[in-house]
From TrEMBL:
<keyword id="KW-0249">Electron transport</keyword>
<dbReference type="InterPro" id="IPR023616">
    <property type="entry name" value="Cyt_c_oxase-like_su1_dom"/>
</dbReference>
<keyword id="KW-0679">Respiratory chain</keyword>
<feature type="transmembrane region" description="Helical">
    <location>
        <begin position="350"/>
        <end position="368"/>
    </location>
</feature>
<feature type="transmembrane region" description="Helical">
    <location>
        <begin position="136"/>
        <end position="155"/>
    </location>
</feature>
<feature type="transmembrane region" description="Helical">
    <location>
        <begin position="318"/>
        <end position="338"/>
    </location>
</feature>
<feature type="transmembrane region" description="Helical">
    <location>
        <begin position="224"/>
        <end position="252"/>
    </location>
</feature>
<keyword id="KW-0472">Membrane</keyword>
<dbReference type="Pfam" id="PF00115">
    <property type="entry name" value="COX1"/>
</dbReference>
<dbReference type="GO" id="GO:0004129">
    <property type="term" value="F:cytochrome-c oxidase activity"/>
</dbReference>
<feature type="transmembrane region" description="Helical">
    <location>
        <begin position="459"/>
        <end position="485"/>
    </location>
</feature>
<keyword id="KW-0408">Iron</keyword>
<keyword id="KW-0479">Metal-binding</keyword>
<feature type="transmembrane region" description="Helical">
    <location>
        <begin position="40"/>
        <end position="64"/>
    </location>
</feature>
<feature type="transmembrane region" description="Helical">
    <location>
        <begin position="90"/>
        <end position="115"/>
    </location>
</feature>
<dbReference type="InterPro" id="IPR036927">
    <property type="entry name" value="Cyt_c_oxase-like_su1_sf"/>
</dbReference>
<feature type="domain" description="Cytochrome oxidase subunit I profile">
    <location>
        <begin position="23"/>
        <end position="580"/>
    </location>
</feature>
Amino acid sequence: MSAVGHELTHDHSHDDHHHKETFVTKYIFSQDHKMISKQFLITGIVMGIIGIAMSLLFRIQIAWPEESFKVFSWLLGDDFAPGGVMRNDIYLAIVTMHGTIMVFFVLTAGLSGTFSNLLIPLQIGARDMASGFMNMLSYWIFLLSCIIMLSSLFIETGPASAGWTIYPPLSAVPEAIPGSGTGMTLWLISMALFIAQSLMGSLNYVVTVLNLRTKGMTMTRMPLIVWALWITALIGIVSFPVLLSAALLLIMDRSFGTSFFLSDIYLAGEVLHYQGGSPVLFEHLFWFLGHPEVYIVILPAMGISSEVISTNARKPIFGYRAMITSLLAIAFLSTIVWGHHMFVSGMNPFLGSVFTFTTLLIAIPSAVKAFNWITTLWKGNLQMNPGMLFSIGMVSTFISGGLTGIILGDSTLDINVHDTYFVIAHFHLVMGISALYGMFAGIYHWFPKMFGRMMNKNLGYIHFWVTAVCSYGVFLPMHFIGMAGLPRRYYTNSAFPMFDDMIDVNIVITMFALVGAAFQLVFLFNFFYSIFYGKKASQNPWRATSLEWTTPVEHIHGNWPGEIPEVHRWAYDYSKPGYDEDFVPQTVPLRDGEKDGGHH
């Protein structure tokens, strides 16, 4: 059957060349996974620019509260920033939108959407995704979701402002604050669409990996990044529907008078008719997605780092099986730790101790991964290109950010620093910065595969070092002001004399943020300039072993002209004794008596 399947896809891919592709079929309604990955990436980059710009606005506000800034009235208009002074409700709205955009539209879609689409078919030896049409649809629904989310910025009452976690009652009672109105409704519609596209994509990725692997590509010969992307898709299928149900119930509370999440609400002294609901129920539903979501964001970055570190250390990845096992363990554990976000919600303290236990367990597979990356680097012949630097940076921020997770995962310790800057410092390092580093590593590493050209190395070095210094410059001091009790999401702390000493620290943080953001322009220039004018890439510029580098540089629909190559070995035969080259591609047959790394 598989031979017939290969023949069919083979003939089909030749037919494709006879129809001349128009601009619309090639770049817009494309069903080619390589083009769809570029669509996801560039949309993600645009959303990232918007998300980072928002963070700069509120960082300026925190560093110099009550002061007038031309940029505020210019960007936010006189309604939201009268006389250049930001209004407190719009501050909350910007924080909400920044969180939503970065977590879902940049890190989730930018990493999974881009790299699952690009790498899964290429690395397992498939002509394309299982369903090209569903793949195209998932991108278009994603784009629609982005547009609806951004359109809420142009509403009279402003965008949603209940925080990116949209807890009721702020999100459930439309008249609570200005941002609870139309902006909140658009947020919910946008997220419902986002979840739909995410599920379509995830199902496609899972089916493709299970059904379309080429001859000889067993599960234990797949590169770790494919494992990471596959497991990420599985987590998405399990947990995203729960957020969809929460969003639908919230829409019913808002528009149809139900009270799933509301009880005993007083608004301006008036008793509202809601009774019997519970806002804590919403927290359970939200975090049942919200915590696995952290791993949906970080697992692709881990997979990318494994791949890039092994390739550039010229060494086999250390502990391949342990890496897969830890990915599976993280995926399982991530679904039973959501309660650690709710230690101060009035949840039963006994339940808190259960969640503390499961949360601390997740440190074990995470540590396994960190040790394995470090051991792969150990005594390697390190090629320090930008992709490698960002991968090593990801290991660094993942470890330093993960250490504070041990404090936050413990219910008794968490209560003291909950809702302070300590929490912000922790999750920005461990998932925000680490995931962004993974994304940058992936872009530098697979750029030649995506665009057939190389990015400028020296600009890449500048980008990495400034970003690395500024990331720690922003988030390290936050641990200390958090320990000192500075609460998050306040647009000014000038009402509390005890926080006066920290205004200087906030100014330092904001300066680092402004410099770090400015140097992302170096990356943007490098990226868009190199697409058109970069040095032409050779077929296998990093001398890597995996299948994607066996396809020709110029893209064809169907990936390989002629037969799909057969796989004989795992993806990490670097510096293998007895071979002239320091890498042995997966397509090279095993010699007599030679062991296959994946199948010990």
